[in-house]
Every structure is written in C-alpha cells, then in structure tokens.
Amino acid sequence: MFVRAALIATALLVPSIASAQAAKPTDPQIAHIAYTAGQIDIDAAKLALTKSHNKKVRAFAQEMERDHKAVNEKALALVKKLNVTPQDNPTSQSLVKAADAEHKTLESLSGAAFDKAYVDNEVAYHKTVNGALQDTLIPDASNAELKALLQTGLKLFQSHQEHAEMLDGELK
Predict the structure, then answer these.
(1) Which pLDDT tens digit goes with each residue over 75-103?
(2) Average pLDDT of the residues of the chain
(3) Is 42 in contact with 153 (CB distance < 8 Å)?
(4) Superfamily assignment of 2-17+26-171 in CATH?
C-alpha cells in the first residue's frame, strides 16, 4: 500500500512536469516550478519531523528541510537580483495538487508505516524531480545564472535520492 502511494505520487508528477507545460517553460515558470518542488519537500520533511520517532528518518528529514530551504533561499535571491517574478503555471499547480494528496496519505499513517511511506515517497519524488531538472528545466532555462543554480540543485538532489534509496533499503 505504501509503495503504491509513492508510485501514485510519481505517476502524478511525471506527466505534470513532462507535459503539463504545453510549450517550453519560460525562466519565470522554471523558477516557480523549482521553488515549488523545493517547498513541497520542505513541507514533507516538516511532517516527518512531527510524526517519526526513527532517528535515521528524522535525520534525513532534517537534511531535506535544511538543504531545500537553502536552495530556495538562493533561488529567491536570484529572482530578486534578476528582477524576475516567478510565474505560476500548470506544472507547479499539478505538483502542489499531487503533494497535497500525498500529504493527506502520510498524515493518516504512524510509526514504521509512516516512516516507510515517507521514505518511499522521497525516493520517488527525487527521481521524478531530478529527471525533470535534467531533461526539461535545465535545458530549457535561458538565463545562465538560473541554469547554474538548477545544476547545483540537481547535484544536491541526486545525493538526496541516493540517501533516500539507502534509507529505504534499511527500512525494508
């Protein structure tokens, strides 16, 4: 059931990132998508910190909250520097909708069931977001500074995916 929830989240995210954006996304849209994706992971980490009693899961959630906040702060500083207003779009709206559904599922769980579902979702979410960064957002970004920030974020988020996969193996 819990792997199913993570797969549902991935199924909802893949089309939203890959095709919800009918045309090539603009830099303001890319900035909004990236910021939204980071905020979603911050919110998931906060939930994990309120629900989990597993030291490794809590440490992972703290890492997610810290790292995604740092990247989002850099993104906000960049859009301010460039005088760009991030633009809401179908992709970021779809991300929020899928995350809200997953958040409700996670809220209903506790103990080891919560830990497993949270980590499964983190694996699926990072795979999806990393794929979107690599295949769509970075190639479509026009501004060199935005592209560089996204590339830095991708490296960090790939390490998050590896950490989540390792933790997932320990929870089985």
Answers:
(1) 999 999 999 999 999 999 999 999 999 99
(2) 90
(3) no
(4) Ferritin, core subunit, four-helix bundle (1.20.1260.10)
Question: Does position 164 have pLDDT exceeding 70, yes or no?
Answer: yes
- Select from 42, 45, 3, 16 the least CA-distant residue to 132: 16
Buried b (16+ CB within 10 A) or exposed e, 129-155: bbbbbeebbbebbebeebbebbeebbe
Please report, for the chain, the start and end positions of each structural domain, with discontinuous segments joined by +. Answer: 2-17+26-171
Whole-number Å distance between alpha carbons of 21 and 27: 13
Comparison of pLDDT for 20 and 138, the residue scoring more: 138
Higher pLDDT, 23 or 62: 62
Helix and strand tally (H, E) in the chain? 7, 0
Residue 72 contacts residue 39 (beta carbons within 8 Å): yes
| Secondary structure class of 26 (helix, strand, coil) | coil
Report the Cα 27 to chain-centroid distance in Å.
18
